Predict the structure.
Amino acid sequence: MSSVLLVEDDENHASLFIRSFEEMKMGKIYWVSDGEEALDFLLHRGRYVDSSTSPRPDLILLDLRLPRMDGLDLLKEIKRSEDLMSIPVVILTTSKNRNDIINAYMNHANSYLIKPIGLSKFQELTRTVCTYWLMWNTMPPGSDAPNKSAA
């Protein structure tokens, strides 16, 4: 079963994504609301020390504008870590700023998506992203993802 870590400070956006994801029955979604909490989840620190309740996600959906540690700084930390760098990180943000897009890709984001307006568009985005990354994408050998290559 796949797992997704959603790093999103806007409760309404998080709620839309979680509801859409759960309707697809593709796995489990975990939600944290800031960059430091996401790092704690990923590194099993603090209240996330138990890896059975904070498993390694198969996909990270990351907003850029976050409290405590912004999304770009979190992305840098993830991609610097040998243990975490192979987890796909999809930026999911409202920012269309050219520098944000460039900085995300320069720091090894796997994709950059602008949050759509409207429930049906948000559901379509959720289906497309999760289907691609959790069902169609082949992860590198040795990763913990369920769809990893057997080669």
In short: The mean pLDDT is 90. The domain at 2-136 is CATH 3.40.50.2300 (Rossmann fold). Residues 119-136 form the longest helix (18 residues).
